[in-house]
Input
Amino acid sequence: MTDRTVAVLAGGLSHEREVSLRSGRRVAGALRSSGVSVFEWDVDANLVERLRAERPDAVVIALHGGEGENGAVQAVLELLDVPFVGTPAPACRRVWDKPTAKSELRIAGLDTPDWVALPHATFRALGARAVLDAMVERLGLPLMLKPDQGGSALGAQVVTTIDDLPSAMVSCLAYCDTVLAERFVDGTEVAVSVVEIDDEPRVLPPVGVEPLGGVYDYTARYTPGNTAFHCPAPLDPDLLARVQDVALSAHRLLGLRDLSRTDAIVDRDGNVQILELNVSPGLTDTSLLPTAAAAAGLDLGDLFASLVERAVDRA
Amino acid sequence: MPVPPPTVPDPYDISTAAAAAAAAPTGRFARRTAGMTASEIRALFAVASRPEVVSLAGGMPNLAALPLDTLAAEVGQLVASEGQTALQYGSAQGTPALREQICEVMRLEGIDADPEDVVVTVGSQMALDLITRIYCDPGDVVLAEGPSYVGALGSFAAYQARVVHVAMDAHGLVPQYLRNALESLARQGITPKFLYTIPNFHNPAGVTLAVERRTEILEICVSHGVAVVEDNPYGLLGFSGTVYPALRSFDRDVVYLGSFSKTFASGLRVGWALVPPAVRDRMVLAAESATLCPPTFNQMIVSRYLQTQDWRSQVKTFTEAYRERRDAMLAALETHLPPGCSWNVPDGGFYVWLTVPEGVDTKAMLPRAVTARVAYASGTGFYADGFGSRQLRLSYCYPTPERIEEGVRRLAGVLGAELDVMRTFGVPARTPRLRSGPDAPSPDTA
Output
C-alpha cells in the first residue's frame, strides 16, 4: 500500500476519446490494485479547479490525441507545478507532430520511411494533380496516408492506385489540415515500449503485430481477437536486439520520459524503420504496452505506481 | 452479327452479398459476430456525449416535459402497495393488465386486438430480435425500406439475414419498387421472410407512408407469401394531430411492434409485439428463453402511468416540443446550408434526412464535424449494403431549438470546408465503400 493519491486524466474531446476512457479505466484499476488512491477525471474546463481543490500527489495522463499528447495538458501541469507521469511538454510537441519527429530521427541517423507532409493549402495553391503525381513518382505505390498528428490509426489508409488518391486525401484531411504521405513498407510490424524504472530506461520485449485482416487499422486495434500479438515479436535474436536499440535511441533522442512506445516495421532487408512514437501509449485490454509489460513480468499497477513515485521525486 | 443488349445490373441481385457473407472470417467467435467490431465511426460518437458538442446524431426522446414529482409519488406508492408483485418474476408474455392497456393504445390507430396476442418486450428492439429469431435462418432474405432503422439492421445482421432494400419516395415505400424486388428475388428462387417497414414518421427518412399505399403494399406482400412486420414507435407523434391507420388495422396477419419509449419513458424499456396467433406461442417461448420475463416493475409503472395520468395530453406536450424543434431545424437548414443540399419536411417523429452535395461522403466527413463540435449520423449506417454515403440523419428530438440552430450552423461550416477540400482534389462522386463495423450511433448519443 502507498498513501499516494493520483489523478488519472482520460477522455477529453479528441477523436480518440473512447480509447482514452478505456485506457484511463484500465490504469486507474491497476493503480488501485497496487494500493494507490485514484481520481478518474474526464478532462474538461474544470481541470485546473479540480487540481487545485483535490491536490493529487501526481497525475497520470491517459489522454490520447489532441491536448493530451501535444504537450498542452503537460504544459498546464508544469505551470501549476503538478507532478505528472510522462514526457515534458516541449518533447511532447516534437513527437506529436509526426513530420517533425521523423525529421529528427532521420537527422540522427535512424531509419524512417520516406515521406512528404503537405497542408491542404499547398495542394490548393499549387494544383493537387501535379503535386500528387510528384508524390507518387517519389514515394511509389502503395502509399501510406495519415494525418500529420493523431493516433489509433484514425484517418490512416493504404492507397494502392493513383485513382484512389484524391478521395483518400479528402478522407484524411477530415482529420487534420496536413497529410503525411509515407512510402509503404512491407514487413513485420513491431511495437517497442520503454519504461523508466530506477532511473534507467528499460526496453520491454517487442510485440509483433499481426492483424488478421492484413491491415492494422482502428478495427484491428480495438476488436479483441482481430489481431494476433506475439511477444516477443517473431524475429531472430539479433533483430530483436536491434529493434530494442532503435526504440531506446529514439526515446532518448526525442527527450521522452517515464514511458514511451515506438512503432516500427522491420522491412524485408532487416532494416528497422520507425513509423511513429507515442508519449501516451494505449493502455486498453488490446494495447501493446500492457502486453509487453506482462511479458516482462511487470505488474501494470506496480509499474505505474513506481512511475508516480518518480514523478513525485522530480517535484 | 447482332450486338447483344447491354446488361442492366439488377438492383435486387444479392448473389454478391451472399458470397461476401459466406467469405466472412470465422475463428473463435460465431460468424454472426463478424460485424460486431470496434468502429472508427462509432468511436467518434464518444465525443458527441460531451456538452461541448451539439449532437444531432442520437435519438433520445426529450423527457424534460414529464411530471417527475408526480411520477416519483406514483412509483413510491406502487412499491409500497404492490411491491411484492412488482419486484417478483412475472409472465413471459407480460402482465395481463398492461396487455389490456396496450390494446387500448393501439385502438387509436384503428387496431382491434386481443390482449392474448400481445407480447410485452424489453423495448420494441427486443421484439425485433425475437421476430428475426423466429423467422430467419442464416442467409434468409428480409425486405426493408432503404434507408431503414439501424437497430433493425443490427438484429437482421445478428441472425445473418440478408437485407434487400426497397426505395421510398416522399410518400414512403413505393409499391412498384416492392413488386420489382419481389419479382427479382423470385427469379433468384428467393421468397423473403418478411417486409420490415416503419410506416409513420420514418427513422431515419422522416417520411410517412401514404394511406392509399397501405393496402396496396399489404396486397403485394400477401400475393407473394411475404409476412409484414410493422414497426410503429412514432405513430402518435404526428405534428398535425393526424393518427394514421396502422397496417395491422387492415390485416390481422401483420406483426405490429409498438413502444412506450417515445410516448412515455425510453429508460423503462417497455415495448410490445402484437402477433398473429400462429406466431404468438413461438414468440412467448423465444421471449422466455431470452429474458424469462420482461421487468414486472417497469410494466407496472407503465400500467399505473396509463391508468392515473392524462397520458394523451402528455404525448401532445411532447409532440408540441418536437414540432418547435423541427421548425428550428428546418429554419436553420434553410438559413445556413450551402446550395446542393436537400431535405424532407417531417410531419412528425424525430428526424430530418438530409442529402448533401454530390461527391460528399458523410461518413468520411464525420471527423471534421466532430472537430467542429457537431455530430450527425451518416447515412451509411441505415443501409445494409454500403449506400447512403451522400445522406445523413439529423435528430431534432433532444437539443433545444437554440442548440439546433448552432449545430446546423456548425454543420454548414463543416460542409463548406469539405467542399473546399473536394474542389482542391477534384473528387468526383464516390462509389459506396463497404466497411466492417457499425456506423451509426447508439440512441443515447446526445
